[in-house]
Amino acid sequence: MGRLAVLKSRGAPDDDPRVIECRQALAYFRLRRAVAAESGQLSRAGVDRLGAQLREAVAQ
Predict the structure, then answer these.
(1) Domain limits of the chain?
(2) H or E element, residue 12
(3) How far is CA 51 from CA 2, 12, 24, 32, 58, in A?
(4) Which of 3, 16, 17, 39 could pair with 12 in a Cys bridge, judged by C-beta atoms 3.0 to 4.6 Å apart?
């Protein structure tokens, strides 16, 4: 059982800093895995667009 599942099963709210940290870590590792799987398949323009979208997502 992952740390997030343990926290949630024990009633930690979504705004708990530990829950937020776990969700951020999961998002990072999911994106890293997807990027690794597509390595060499993206154009430079595609990489630039994805970078811009990630920066926008973080800014919200």
Answers:
(1) 3-59
(2) none
(3) 29, 32, 17, 13, 11
(4) 16
